[in-house]
């Protein structure tokens, strides 16, 4: 998933209902803390931190 902001929690709750059909395996966000917090809350194992140059 790209983005760990406020709306991402709603998307992740919806994705969670698709067990066996879809799985979020990583979350990407420019904010390290936002990505880590959202990943921890939804048991997402990988995070990607991207910065604009």
* Percentage of β-strand residues: 15-25%
Distance between the termini: 21 Å
- What is the count of distinct domains? 1
What's the pLDDT, averaged over the residues?
A: 93
* Rg, Cα atoms, Å: 11 Å
Which regions contain 5 or more consecutive residues with pLDDT less than 50?
none
**What's the helical proportion of residues?**
25-40%
Number of strands: 2
Shape verdict: elongated
Strand adjacency order, main sheet:
1-2
Structural class: alpha+beta
Number of helices: 2
| Main sheet attributes: strand count, strand direction, barrel closure | 2 strands, parallel
One letter per element, helices H and strands E, the order comes to HEHE
Please explain how this structure is put together:
With 53 residues, the protein is of the alpha+beta class. It has one domain. The protein has two helices and two strands, in the order αβαβ. It has helices at residues 8-16, 32-41, and strands spanning 26-29, 46-49. It has a two-stranded parallel sheet with strand order 1-2. Helix 2 (32-41) links the parallel strand 1 and strand 2 (46-49). The protein is elongated. The model has no long low-confidence stretch (mean pLDDT 93).
List keywords for this structure.
53 residues; alpha+beta; two-stranded parallel ribbon; 2 strands
SSE topology:
Elements: H1 8-16, E1 26-29, H2 32-41, E2 46-49
Short overview:
This protein is an alpha+beta fold and 53 residues long.
């Amino acid at each position: 998933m790209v983005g760990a902001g406020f709306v991402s929690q709603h998307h992740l709750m919806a994705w969670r209902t698709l067990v066996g059909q879809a799985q979020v395996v990583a979350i990407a966000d420019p904010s390290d803390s936002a990505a880590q917090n959202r990943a921890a809350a939804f048991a997402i194992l990988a995070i990607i931190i991207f910065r604009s140059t």
